[in-house]
Design a protein that fits this description.
By secondary structure, the protein is an alpha/beta fold. It has helices at residues 5-9, 11-25, 29-40, 44-59, 61-71, 81-96, 102-116, 119-135, 147-155, 159-168, 174-182, 198-206, 234-237, 246-254, 272-280, 294-307, 363-375, 397-406, 433-436; strands spanning 187-191, 211-214, 221-225, 241-243, 262-265, 286-291, 312-316, 331-337, 378-388, 410-412, 415-417, 422-424, 428-431, 441-448. It is built from 19 helices and 14 strands. α16 links the parallel β6 and β7. The longest helix has 17 residues, at 119-135. The N and C termini lie far apart (66 Å).
Length: 453
């Protein structure tokens, strides 16, 4: 066998391995991709193509299945999983990736079927893909029994989720949201003003050929186009910037931490709010970054060292456990960015849309438990910041309102997000991908006692 590992396997082979790993293990697509690309020692060009195919399939799986079923003699449910993976990645290339020759997608799909199934499967794949190739000029329009089912096929979101998102939007804008969820988002980073300024960060990125522009609402956030893998960005490794979506950055700002404060980040990993708070505090005061995972806390500590932040201390703890008497009421600001369904981040993690509703039912109970546990650390007059990366009311407003009902010493506190990004006259705001250009995100600000920060 000659050539590099990537050349020996081929990008489509690697994409198939990533899809198979995702399907079999139920892991995040990013984890599956990282494992496959690392094992293959794939170069930047190959990694980009493998990632584009894999994520593209996940973003358009239902639509690819619709096309496949229309061209096939078998219903989707009767096609062997490994063969369906091959058909999906081939159909995606043919229908959505205009730069890839149709003949190459067909031939490679057949070759994959021969290697991973048998000659009969290869013949079936050949027939389906050739039928699809003949139909590319006039692909069938998705259609379902209801409006939601049609949208579910066209934008590859489960019908139940389309209904939930439509309800969260109040019946307006669902098509625009689904389109935004399927769009490739830019990489947004926060400038580490402890080490440089916006101009310096843009210059450092430019020297690596990466175009950056200030975010329209957040002047110290940058939007990067065609940046590739963040790990390969020199300015990232040198601590000039760190990855943080504008919505998460806005949530950190809404906490209003100031130099000399004590801040508790109760669910800290991967560290973005801890880093942002430390920078807003000018690296003066104390930031306690807590998480239940020691491994994730180690990554937070590594990130702090890279950024030159010295005020962060990591501590392993379960956020649902209230403060001990000696630890109680210690923080000026407490961030409770809780585990959630993640449906606001579908554009970054397309596989999130395939979560099962029965697996999400206990989330509000857990979220309320975390919020209640962390509230015991808030000083009188201090701020409790509740946030999620979902847009579902039952995980957002419902949880915050139930917390306020149970905790009479807290009240919702009105706030405004910078740059006109959002107004929260009742202390709560939801950001939307198709409206604000951010991840979907909920932010609630509450204060303890009568004092206000």
């Amino acid at each position: 066998m000659t050539g590099t590992p990537t050349e020996a396997c081929g990008e489509r082979e690697l994409a198939l391995r990533a899809l198979r790993a995702y399907r079999r293990r139920g892991t995040f697509a990013s984890d599956a991709l990282d494992g496959v690309l690392r094992a293959a020692r794939a170069d930047a060009r190959s990694s980009a193509l493998v990632t584009a195919i894999t994520r593209g399939v996940l973003r358009n799986m239902a639509l690819c299945d619709f096309y496949i079923e229309r061209m096939s003699s078998r219903p989707i449910g009767k096609i062997e999983p490994q063969v369906l993976d091959i058909l999906r990645l081939s159909a995606y290339q043919m229908a959505f990736m205009g730069k890839i020759p149709v003949s190459a997608a067909v031939n490679e799909g057949v070759a994959l079927a021969r290697r991973h199934a048998n000659s009969s499967a290869a013949g079936f794949v050949n027939a389906v893909l050739r039928a699809l190739a003949r139909s590319l000029g006039a692909l069938p329009e998705p259609s379902g029994a209801t409006k939601f089912e049609t949208l579910a096929i066209k934008y590859s979101h489960p019908p139940w989720l389309v209904g939930e998102l439509d309800a969260a939007l109040g019946g307006e804008g669902i098509r625009e949201l689904l389109e935004a969820n399927n769009a490739q988002p830019p990489l947004t980073v926060r400038v580490n003003t402890l080490r440089t300024d916006v101009r310096g960060a843009i210059g450092a990125l430019g020297r690596q050929g990466i175009e950056a522009r200030p975010h329209s609402a957040l002047g110290e956030s940058l939007v990067l186009e065609s940046a590739g893998n963040p790990a390969g960005i020199c300015a990232m490794r040198e601590g000039y910037i760190f990855v943080q979506d504008a919505a998460s950055a806005a949530a950190a700002i809404a906490g209003r931490p100031k130099p000399g404060d004590t801040v508790l980040d109760g669910c800290a990993a991967p560290g973005g709010k801890s880093f942002a708070a430390s920078i807003l505090m000018m690296n003066k005061g104390a930031v306690i970054s807590r998480d239940i995972s020691a491994e994730k806390l180690a990554a937070v500590a590594d990130g702090a060292r890279r950024l030159g932040i010295t005020v962060i201390n990591t501590r392993r703890a379960d956020a649902r456990v209230p403060a001990d008497v000696g630890e109680g009421a210690l923080a000026d600001v407490v961030y409770a960015d809780v585990p959630c369904s993640g449906f606001g981040a579908i554009r970054r993690k397309p596989e999130i849309r395939y979560k099962q509703p029965q697996d999400l039912r206990r989330l509000p109970e857990m979220q309320l438990g975390i919020l209640s546990g962390l509230s015991t650390y808030v000083k009188p007059g201090g701020a409790l910041m509740y946030s999620t990366c979902t847009v579902l009311r039952r995980e957002n407003e419902d949880v915050a309102e139930e917390f306020l009902r149970r905790h009479g010493d807290f009240r919702a506190d009105p706030f405004s997000l910078p740059g006109g990004l959002g107004e929260a006259p009742d202390g709560m705001v939801t950001l939307w991908p198709h409206i604000h250009g951010t991840d979907g995100f909920f932010i609630c600000r509450m204060v303890r006692g009568r004092a206000s920060r």
